[in-house]
Input
Amino acid sequence: MSSTQNALFSTKIWQHGPSPGLFYDPPGGSSTYQHIPVKRTLQPSVTGTSVLGVKYEGGVILASDMLGSYGSMARYRNVSRVKKVNSNTAMAVGGDYADFQFLSDVLEQKIIDDECLDDGHSYTPKSLFSWLTRVMYNRRSQFNPLWNAVAVGGFHKGEPFLGYVDKIGSAYESPTVANGFGAYIALPMMRDALEKNPVMSEDDAKALIDRCMRVLFYRDARSFNKYEVVIINKDGVRIEPPASSTTSWDLAHMVE
Output
């Protein structure tokens, strides 16, 4: 077949023209779309601020406010950042809300798969906490972290459990945990209260959390005076209705 016939029966409509399923390649130009690098999340869009956790005599309390900030704008004012994982474990999550939703979906499927086994065993708070540390570190190692800080609370075999893991997989267990601005303001308050009253009751712990959330509302520009508390003890996991602290701005005119 001659070159003229080859041109007539060419699959392309014209030289350097579009082909089905491909991008247009301009004549004499180089394709730039092939050299676009893979990109990761560099700055989360909708975020939540501090989460708090404290052990008391016979259980654990976790708390977070219900504000989803779009940058510096208080955009979503009724988002829940606490989650019941199973009958003895719960978590409170700060950071990127989309990543929290993704993590929540993965956890739900993990619990469903575990229940389908029906082998008489279930995930303990420590095992779920350990799994979270591996997930966070794995994503960090791929340079694609889940932009979250997670407080994990649970109750197993008569012992309360409280742990913290951040977006790069750093993790620890402690009687008190907090992230973000709460690590600078609320954490010293909780540690001081626990040192003065090591055998803290549930009511004392709830009052402490309320005081910490009130101070964070005063001091943290990304916080909100509406928060959720989840209580984990021998009776299971209980997420209480949203609450607000009693605030007073009488001294505001004295602050420069």
In short: The first strand starts at residue 46 and ends at 48. The CA atoms of residues 48 and 178 lie 13 Å apart. The chain has a mean pLDDT of 87.
